[in-house]
Amino acid sequence: MNTGVDDGLWSAIGDPTRRRMIDLLAEGQGTATTFSARLPVTRQAVTKHLTVLDRAGLVRSTAAGRERRYHVDEAQLGRAVAQLQSVGALWDARLQRVKDIAEAIQRAKNAKK
């Protein structure tokens, strides 16, 4: 089954701290220092999380003095949303098939009564 899902992208998004960082980045640009003030992790941990998000293409950075300013890559985030919608639709179809089977079994049981 090929759903076109980018496992590296979803691995990056899978971490709750990184999802919170994406939320913060959606509000605007920031540095590792500004994000560490708003998250329950150290600046070093924030930097590592930002590196993972950068490798997945979800954030981009620019030099700002001694630090780097990070911002969301909207195109890649849009790609992630599209993949999530695709996977959601696939699971909706699977669950509908399970429901149909369960209803058919129930109808068969009721017919035997």
Topology, number of strands? 2
- Secondary-structure element sequence? HHHHEEH
Beginning-to-end CA distance, first to last residue: 40 Å
Compute the number of helices. 5
Strand composition percent: 5-15%
Low-confidence stretches: none
Widest sheet: strand ordering: 1-2
**Helix/strand structural class:** mainly alpha
SSE map:
Layout: H1 7-13, H2 16-27, H3 32-36, H4 43-55, E1 59-64, E2 67-72, H5 74-112
Kindly describe this structure.
The protein has a single domain (7-112), classed as Orthogonal Bundle (Arc Repressor Mutant, subunit A), CATH 1.10.10.10. By secondary structure, it is mainly alpha-helical. The longest helix has 39 residues, at 74-112. Strands 1-2 form a two-stranded antiparallel sheet. It is 67% helix and 11% strand. The mean pLDDT is 90.
Keywords:
single chain; 113 residues; mainly alpha; Arc Repressor Mutant, subunit A; two-stranded antiparallel ribbon; 5 helices; 2 strands; elongated
Concise structural overview:
By secondary structure, the protein is mostly helical. It contains 5 helices and 2 strands, in the order ααααββα. The longest helix is centred in the C-terminal third of the chain and has 39 residues, at 74-112.
